[in-house]
Amino acid sequence: MMNVRMTMPVVFFALGVSFLIAAFNLPKARLGDPNGPLYFPVIICSLLVILSVVYFFQEWKVRNKEIAEVKLIFSGRAPRLIGGSLVLIFIYTFLFERIGFLFSTIVFLGALLFLVNGKERWKTNIIVAIVFSFVSWYSFAELLQVSLP
Q1: Phi first, then psi: what are they for 73, rounded to 5°?
Q2: The whole model's pTM is what?
Q3: Max Cα distance, the chain (Å)
Q4: pLDDT in tens, 18-42
Q5: Does the keyword DNA-binding apply (predicted)?
Q6: Are the C-beta atoms of 137 and 148 separated by less than 8 Å?
Q7: Coil, strand or helix: which one is 75?
């Protein structure tokens, strides 16, 4: 369990350092402040590095304690929900370009709601899937004029 808990801070630290190095390799701006493109990425990457070090030491202090929440992920309905959600996301990405945003979102959200809520709440699942998908499509395609597939 300790290895899992200590892995994420190390990954975040490595990502922060990698992106920090990449940020310093950004080209200089030709207009205005030559370091203008550098400020925001360096601040974000520096925060990621600092916070990952803090996160590492917080996890180091409790490294030998057992976490009940981690055990819950591997018991009960959780593995089925996680696996089913991943399969549905894969299917959604496959359908998105082929049948468009509206219909693929209705299918994806409906299937996800049936997975989580079960067949007993079928009316609610269908209504939420259709209404949410339509409102999302209308908001982006009609109101914001964003082109959706």
Answers
A1: -65, -30
A2: 0.56
A3: 62
A4: 999 998 888 887 777 777 778 888 9
A5: no
A6: yes
A7: coil
